[in-house]
Amino acid sequence: MTEIAVASERQTAIRLLSCIQAAGDTNNARYWGRDVVCVLHSQSRLQALDFWMRNPDYLANELLTEFETSGERDLLTIAQRIFYDREPDLRRLPMVRYLFGAFEPLDNALAILRAADLIRIKRDGVPGGKIREHLYLLTAAGEDALGRIAAAAPELSWYRDRACIVARVAGAQGGKALKDRQYLQAEYAGTELSHVIQPVTDRVLARLATIMEGLVE
Hints:
Blueprint: H1 9-23, E1 36-41, H2 43-54, H3 56-70, H4 73-84, H5 87-90, E2 96-98, E3 101-103, H6 107-115, E4 119-125, E5 131-139, H7 140-152, H8 154-170, H9 175-183, H10 186-189, E6 195-196, H11 201-216
Antiparallel strand pairs: 1-5, 2-3, 2-6, 4-5
Helix pairs in contact: 1-2, 1-6, 1-7, 1-8, 2-3, 2-9, 3-4, 3-11, 7-8
């Protein structure tokens, strides 16, 4: 039986920092502070991005869907590489399905980033009332730290590079739209509440093989 890796809080912090940097909105970021580089809107969007970071087989499936729509061959190459590097076995970090989809408490990892002022978190809503969304602000210090981390070793640069791919797949869609896309996968939608979301590795490998056969014909 394949052993499933478990990330440390620091690894999770790097992964989240990478997602915020790659998928954050740079428009009007300075509104939140002179040293704010970009803003990632909503906890649900961050959780959805993190799901694809942690489940390479689900990401590969999205890449194949994007390839079939756009015909961009590099998307197919990235999907192939995910399986060639055995990422579904070696890099999968499972998530539990709750009522609104994949979720894991991120407070500890985010606290590491906040303590170093690499990110700031704002809560948008009515004072004393319900919070509409969380805003994750990447600071210039956070952007610089991520650059230094990525330059330190190939293993660490993987997080930044992968987050860029995830952000490309996600586009400008909000958290609900991304979760809806993830729910289109039967394995995801069919997972019982409070259980680990099941992988799609075999099905996506078969899909990749079919696409490759079609390109050769």
